[in-house]
Design goal:
The structure holds two protein chains of two kinds. Chain A is an all-alpha fold. Chain A contains eleven helices and no strands. Chain A has a domain of 194 residues. The longest helix of chain A has 31 residues. The N and C termini of chain A lie far apart (38 Å). By secondary structure, chain B is mainly alpha-helical. The two termini of chain B are 19 Å apart. Classes of the chains: A mainly alpha, B mainly alpha. Chains A and B meet through α4, α9 and α11 of A and α5, α12 and α14 of B.
């Protein structure tokens, strides 16, 4: 029982961070109908950002969020404005392949600049786990969990309460109608892409103290992200959150009760089962 | 121009090419170009004609390579039958995947291919009894074969060159047939507008599954060739994302939904890889990414697609 609770808790903690990455992917898909294959690389850039600001400037990774989240927001807008804007009207296929090229470019530039070494951040408070109710919880992961919850809630407030947020949701529902209502769809696309990138970057910063970081880490993260958005239904934010937490729990329980070697595989099997039996996502909110 | 002139010229060029040099590195380069052409052709059948982008085609390559080598090492089956069996195994795995994924619209297939490739890689990595896990499989000796009364001992690169040339020609012939057949027209209809294709009575699921099966067959054969040529495979080599990406690259850069495009793409790919691989580690991958972005931005029909268009315009003028 103890072991079950233990793996459940760590599954929820990691799953929330997965969820945050997937929310970034899903809002971009919702508004622009493109799958950003380079989304995992945005997470990787966030991780390396946190790593460098920690090792060079001794900036606490969680504090560096204030630096990297806006920076990644700007980076995302620049990528949209100068790279993606001309590609998206060319159709789904072109943007899928284009962002795959972008992903290859970013990951391997990072590999060239920073080598393929595995790095990690050793926080002074990272070693001792907290033990509420006899369950050991890593402190950096717990902080990351709290911040991820806060950022995701702020995002949903932004989407539901502000004019820009409403415009984003309107564009996701129907770009033509939104344009007719006087919404500048191009500007909304750019902001949304910035938001998606900022979320990816922020989750990278939050994950950095708990994972090994290396330039091709985005590869495995993007695959997890796809599993999540399919579980939750492509384009749905609540679906992405639920799917992320679910994947975290399944992986964590699976590595205890099935096999550590197949930990990453369990999520994929779940993914194929969902595609087979519930193609609209587990919660029936997405569209097939 | 008579109908058979072009294929005959192509065949003659393929037969003559390795005789121009006795240098084994030149032969290796020619083999890599033809191998890449075959990969590009097979990806193109599905990704180009039907517009179903697969990011996990290395799964079929790996299945072909493992089937060929395992049948030889464990059961002693001649590798040349094993090669065919590899293609068949890849095809047999592809069909159920297609039946699951093609019921859905949109990018689900692309996402699922990544997951499938990853599952198969994990199985190959952990099923030690069958696959020897991360250690991989090695062939130390290939049995000599007798072809047209000649004994071929597979020590030099030349027999491998002719083997891959035959496979690449097979891929081109198949692509050519598909492009001119009813199936090709159906596939293009599916790519351009799925709903309209369904509305005129095309069974879009069966059409796409068929394209996937043919594509997997070719990649499976290529995988068997890979195993025999390099004589060593391990899960991270044959099931790698990088290989899947190379297949996408060859087809996109050469020209989507063309027969000759993958040759152009393969030459560019091997050129980039040989130029930069030696300069710095993984440098070639940076240029794959960059090149792919530039081609999609400025030559969305690929290099060969653009050339073909220019030729057509010149003829009409």
């Amino acid at each position: 029982m103890q072991m079950f609770l233990q793996s459940l808790v760590s599954g929820v903690l990691t799953g929330t961070l997965y969820a945050m990455i997937a929310v970034g992917l899903t809002i971009v898909f919702g508004v622009m109908r493109i799958i950003n294959m380079a989304h995992g690389e945005m997470v990787m850039l966030g991780m390396f950002g946190a790593y460098w600001s920690y090792s060079l400037l001794h900036l606490d990774p969680f504090l560096s969020l204030l630096l990297w989240m806006p920076a990644m927001f700007l980076f995302g807008m620049v990528v949209y404005r100068f790279l993606l804007r001309k590609i998206i009207p060319g159709g789904e296929l072109n943007s899928l392949l284009y962002t795959a090229g972008l992903s290859l470019l970013i990951a391997n530039l990072a590999l060239f600049l920073w080598t393929g070494d595995y790095r990690n951040i050793n926080l002074p408070y990272g070693m001792l786990p907290a033990r509420p109710f006899g369950i050991s919880v890593s402190i950096p992961l717990a902080i990351a969990f709290g911040l991820a919850l806060a950022i995701t809630s702020l995002l949903s407030l932004f989407l539901s309460r502000t004019d820009t947020g409403r415009a984003i949701r309107a564009t996701a529902q129907n770009p033509e109608a939104a344009a007719l209502m006087g919404i500048e769809v191009g500007r909304i696309d750019m902001i949304t892409f910035g938001l998606g990138t900022a979320l990816a970057g922020a989750s990278g910063v939050l994950l950095a103290p708990s994972l090994y970081l290396y330039p091709t880490v985005g590869e495995i993260l993007i695959v997890k992200c796809f599993v999540i958005v399919v579980l939750g239904g492509l384009g749905s934010i609540p679906g992405a959150i639920a799917g992320g937490v679910l994947l975290g729990i399944v992986e964590s329980l699976g590595s205890v009760y099935v096999s550590v070697a197949y930990k990453d595989g369990i999520g994929f099997v779940l993914f194929l089962l969902v595609l087979l039996f519930r193609p609209k996502g587990l919660f029936g909110v997405g569209r097939a | 121009m008579p109908r058979f002139t072009l294929p005959a010229l192509l065949a003659a060029a393929l037969i003559a090419a390795p005789l121009l040099s006795t240098h084994s590195f030149v032969h290796h380069l020619l083999i890599m170009v033809l191998f890449s052409t075959l990969l590009g052709l097979s990806w193109n059948l599905l990704g180009g004609f039907a517009g179903q982008v697969s990011f996990g085609h290395s799964a079929f390559l790996g299945l072909g390579a493992y089937s060929t080598l395992l049948l030889y090492l464990k059961l002693g089956l001649s590798p040349w039958f094993g090669l065919l069996a590899g293609g068949a195994v890849a095809m047999a795995v592809a069909v159920p995947i297609g039946l699951i994924c093609f019921r859905l619209r949109g990018p689900y297939f692309s996402l699922a291919t990544l997951a499938v490739a990853e599952i198969i890689r994990l199985v190959a990595l952990n099923w030690d009894d069958l696959t020897a896990g991360p250690q991989g499989l090695i062939i130390t000796h290939l049995p000599a074969t007798s072809i047209l009364g000649q004994t071929v001992n597979w020590e030099s690169k030349l027999p491998f060159y002719y083997l891959i040339a035959v496979l690449a020609l097979l891929g081109m012939g198949l692509t050519h047939l598909v492009a001119r057949s009813r199936l090709g027209a159906y596939l293009l209809a599916v790519r351009e507008d799925l709903e309209s294709a369904e509305a005129v009575g095309i069974d879009t699921v069966r059409t796409r599954v068929l394209a996937l099966a043919l594509s997997a067959l070719l990649v499976g054969l290529a995988g068997g060739f890979y195993g025999l040529y390099f004589r060593y495979i391990d899960p991270d080599a044959v099931f790698s994302v990088a290989l899947s990406v190379e297949m996408v690259f060859i087809a996109v850069v050469g020209g989507i939904a063309t027969t000759a495009g993958p040759i152009v793409g393969a030459i560019v790919l091997v050129g980039i890889s040989e130029t930069f691989r030696t300069q710095f580690q993984s440098g070639h991958l940076i240029f794959y990414g960059l090149f792919m972005m530039l081609v999609i931005r400025y030559l969305p029909d690929g290099i060969w697609g653009r050339v073909r268009l220019a030729l057509k315009q010149a003829r009409e003028r």
